[in-house]
Amino acid sequence: METTDALPAFAALSQPTRLAAFRLLVRAGDVGIIAGDLADKLEVRQNTLSANLSVLLNAGLVTNKREGREIRYFANMQTMRDLLAFLMEDCCGGRPELCQPLLDELSCTNRDMP
């Protein structure tokens, strides 16, 4: 991930409602959350949430899928992984092998998970 790609993602996550929405979508995983349900969980108006989801969508942090009259949103886990890798790119004094255990932990591919 390049800096020019990371900046919009950081900007999108720098607002409390967007950060909370993204975190809920990460927790929801592959199931995602219907926009109206997400608004209810966050206790925000649907039009407010819609504007915030658009910012997350434009930053590549979420995807969506229309289901009849509703729209289901999902966290874009690949973008999240790319963003985390970008943050850790220079960790451990430029010796990425020292950070590998942490990177493996963050990769969501832990074999001990159900």
From the structure above, extract its key features.
single chain, 114 residues, alpha+beta, Arc Repressor Mutant, subunit A, 3-stranded antiparallel β-sheet, 7 helices, 3 strands, 12% strand, elongated
Radius of gyration: 16 Å
Query: From the helix content, strand content and strand pairing, which structural class follows?
Result: alpha+beta
Instruction: Please state roughly what percent of the residues sit in beta strands, choosing from under 5%, 5-15%, 15-25%, 25-35%, 35-45% or over 45%.
Output: 5-15%
- The arrangement of helices and strands along the chain is HHEHHEEHHH
CATH-derived topology of the domain at 3-76:
Arc Repressor Mutant, subunit A
Q: Total number of helical segments?
A: 7
Helix coverage percent = 55-70%
How would you characterize the largest beta sheet? 3 strands, antiparallel
Q: Which spans of ≥5 residues are poorly predicted at pLDDT below 50?
A: 110-114
| Average pLDDT reading | 86
Termini gap: 29 Å
Shape: elongated
CATH architecture of the domain at 3-76: Orthogonal Bundle
Instruction: Write out the CATH superfamily name of the domain at 3-76.
Output: Winged helix-like DNA-binding domain superfamily/Winged helix DNA-binding domain
| Order of strands in the sheet with most strands | 1-3-2
State the name of the first-level CATH class of the domain at 3-76: Mainly Alpha
Based on DSSP secondary structure assignment, what is the total number of beta strands?
3
